[in-house]
Structures are given as structure tokens and as C-alpha cells.
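Q: What would this complex look like in 3D?
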Amino acid sequence: MSSNSAVIKEKNFTWSGVERKDYKTDGHNFKDIHRYTLLADEHPELNTQTRYFEIQPGGYSSLEYHHHPHSVVIIRGRGHVVLNNELREISAFDMVYISPDTIHQFHADDGEPLGFICIVDRYRDRPVIPSDEKIKSMIDSEEVLHKIRK
Amino acid sequence: MSSNSAVIKEKNFTWSGVERKDYKTDGHNFKDIHRYTLLADEHPELNTQTRYFEIQPGGYSSLEYHHHPHSVVIIRGRGHVVLNNELREISAFDMVYISPDTIHQFHADDGEPLGFICIVDRYRDRPVIPSDEKIKSMIDSEEVLHKIRK
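A: Here is my prediction, written as C-alpha cells for the whole assembly.
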């Protein structure tokens, strides 16, 4: 008896049958980042979605926050992540947990792409771009203020 | 302002502050496998748990099935996975989806450990060890019957 189980084979950080997509369909507060949806609505019994994001050297994800948490495993390269008032180095196989309402942004360092698996609840709220007032209320680290792109 | 977000640094496939644990507390239908719980109940807002499993060369996980699905990302080594009547090769960065009630077992090949991230719902049913009758009703591939360990 077969099943709906599946192995999705990887080669050079692309996956068989999985399309490279734009990171988002609108906005321009991000740079050189793409999305690969590995597991999503084709499996209605799944309560989560599993995505792979890849940021090219010098690129970054959007500065945003939302109520749903992110479970992130870095699988390629190195870079930095902003978590509210903190700036942390990240590299392959580090685990990043982004708790509800944390302002966050991923940055790839120069030299190689930063790639990470990100698991989210299937039903979740939409990301919010923080206003300047919100940023001011949450972040006072000069290092972080210098790093963020909006 | 800080947050409950966290970066858990990895080194040689161990994670800062994360203990290596027994795979299960009972049974002996598995071999040379350990569990690292990366994200779990310390974050009550998380609907999932993220675990890393590592199987030493020649080892295997228990042959089992359950109603909750598994989202699995291989991050180290190579091996095989049984999915009901199928035997599939797996290696680093392949994605494995295990759908509800699929009889499954991971095997590390000889030569290097097989390591994988496995995400599950926080609230989930317990695994069931298939009876010989159940195996007979689900599996008739000689290749799979030769591979499984129980």
C-alpha cells in the first residue's frame, strides 16, 4: 500500500518539483531573497508550512513582526539576524526561534548565500512593517539601528 | 526591548544548552539513535516541537506509525527511509514528508551518521508499533520487508 508521504530530493539547494518564487508579491523593503515552498497546502492534514528562503550575499529579508512564531534552521552560509534590540551572528545548523511580535530581519553576509528552513503555522496572521515610532519604542541599540534596512 | 526569541548555536551537530537524550525511554526496536529537543515546551506559544535525531552508521529508528504527520529535513549524511511499501534513498537537504498513518523507519547507511530535523505538532498521538498482521496488510515489497527491523 502506498501513502501520501513523499521524499523531495535536493540538489544544490533546489528541490525536485519545487519552484523558486518571489519572496513577496509586493513591497521593496527586502533585497535578493527568494522563497521555495517545500510543504504546504497540498497536504491538508499538515498544521504547518515548511519553506526554504535563500538570501544572496548582502541581501536581507523584510524588517517585520507578527504574532505567529517562526522556527528556523539555518542550512547554508552565514549572516546575522535582528531580534528586537539584539543583533546575532548565525551560520549553518544554528536554530533560531522568533517569538511572537519580535521585530526581525535576516541578513546574508558577503561571500555566500544564507539559506534557512522556516516553519510556520498554516493559519497565521500577516506580517506588519514596523513604523518609525514602533522601531524607536523597541530598539535603542546603535548596532541594530545601523544594521536594519527598511 | 528584548524578547523570548533565541539563537541556539550549533557546533559539530550539537547545540548550545541542548542535551543529548535517549531516543525513547522504552522499547528496543531501534538502534544507535539519539534525540536533541531544540524547541519545545519552554515556548508555550509554539504549536510545534522541533527535534534533531541522529542515527549512527548502521542504526535505525523504530518501525512505527501514528496519525500526526512528520515534516523532516535531512541535514547530515545519507541513508534510507521506509514509507509503507516504498524504500527511498535520502541524503543531506532532502525533505521527507510522512503522512498520517504511514509505517516508517529511518536507516543510516554505513560510513557516516544520518541526522535530521523533525517537526511535529505539539499535541499529537503516540506512535504505534505495527503488528505482523498490520505489516503484512501494508507491505508486500520484498526490498522493504528485507530492510525493516522490528
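A: To summarize the key features: Helices of chain B lie at 132-138, 142-147. Chain B has a mean pLDDT of 95.
Q: Very helpful, thank you.
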